[in-house]
Amino acid sequence: MKKFIPLLIFSLILAGCAGQTPPPAEEPSSDASPTNGDSIGGTDFKPVKLDDLGPAPELENETWLNTDQPLRLADLRGKVVLLDMWTFG
């Protein structure tokens, strides 16, 4: 019986740490509509007007990490590209 007491105490501590789940978010009413139709978590997003600066300039760097040859924009067309900008310092 004595070896079950620590297990019981541990179970009670875990149950106490679990806490209660928050209530589900309220559904937005049908008469409330965002200004542009985009809303996440009750926050309305307004469109931002960006200037057209023309086509992207060609990549001029000749040294790239983890590639066999220099990268060119034409080779990346139609692909999803993540740019991680950093320097050796």
* Rg from Cα: 28 Å
Task: List low-confidence stretches.
Answer: none
User: What is the number of strand segments?
Assistant: 2
Beta-strand proportion: under 5%
Q: Can you give the helix content as a percent range?
A: 10-25%
For the largest sheet, list the strands in their spatial order: 1-2
Q: H/E series, N to C? A: HEEH
Overall structural class, as computed from helix and strand content, comes to: mainly alpha
Distance between the termini: 63 Å
Mean pLDDT, to the nearest integer, reads 76
Shape: elongated
Please summarize the sheet with the most strands. Answer: 2 strands, antiparallel
How many helical stretches?
A: 2
Please outline what is shown here:
By secondary structure, this protein is mainly alpha-helical. The chain has two helices and two strands.
Describe the fold and architecture.
The chain has 89 residues and is mostly helical. It is 21% helix and 4% strand. Strands 1-2 form a two-stranded antiparallel ribbon. It is elongated, with a radius of gyration of 28 Å. It starts with a helix and ends in a 13-residue tail after the last helix.
